[in-house]
């Protein structure tokens, strides 16, 4: 009732570069859909990350034309018919889009996300997955371990941070007590905000372990995030 509905659809699109392309589409329908646009995530083993982002952008463009009316079926039909064209244009458009996105970033600014995870049972696999998502979405920051505390601090384009959150909530990233793959059900968003001038920009995404709370605090202080630390981290120790 408060989060809406999330579902995945897989479609195979034929006759694209003489091969079938399996598109994995994830739609999150907010509570007030279709008056509000759905969040869309696109992935495919046959396409590059840039091409998937282009497909997503084109689907959102189409979605705006159907605002206030059910649209998912129309969007799927549209991409089945137009995927070949979208991919053909992708290479030419990508350099232009990169230039435009720089202008957009200057206007919208860089955003920051602080996530708390309750635990990681399959730690090695989980860490590798988080690193891949951060790389694919061009996000920088830290995956931080201190005792039982696990934090993910991300910086980047706001739309990419939103897509990271969708992946975090809907992908099978860990295993349950019986060893079966499971989704992350125990994560919480501590803070999502625009990066301010006093905040240091992370240049890379790193996985780090800290022996003491002081070490963890220094990481935040170095990045100009003292207030963020004092507001959200100490309460996790209680």
Describe this structure in words.
- 41% of the residues lie in helices and 30% in strands.
- It is α+β, with helices and mostly antiparallel strands.
- It folds into 2 domains: 5-92, Ubiquitin Conjugating Enzyme, CATH 3.10.110; 110-236, Alpha-Beta Plaits (2-Layer Sandwich), CATH 3.30.70.
- Strands 9-4-6-5-10 form a 5-stranded mixed β-sheet.
- Helix 1 (49-65) crosses helix 2 and helix 5 (213-222) packs across helix 6.
- The chain is elongated and about 55 Å long.
- One of its GO terms (biological process) is positive regulation of hypoxia-inducible factor-1alpha signaling pathway.
- Residues 1-86 form the RWD domain.
Mean pLDDT: 83
Radius of gyration: 19 Å
What is the SS-derived class?
alpha+beta
What is the ordering of alpha helices and beta strands?
Answer: EEEHHEHEEHEEEEHH
Annotation field: number of helices:
6
Head-to-tail CA distance between termini: 30 Å
What shape does the CA trace take?
elongated
How much beta, percentage-wise? 25-35%
Helix content: 40-55%
Q: Please, how many domains?
A: 2
- CATH topology grouping of the largest domain: Alpha-Beta Plaits
Q: Any idea of the CATH class of the largest domain?
A: Alpha Beta
- Main beta-sheet strand count, sense and barrel state: 5 strands, mixed
- How many DSSP E strands? 10
Main location: cytoplasm
Protein name: RWD domain-containing protein 3
Keywords: Cytoplasm, Nucleus
Pfam families: RWD
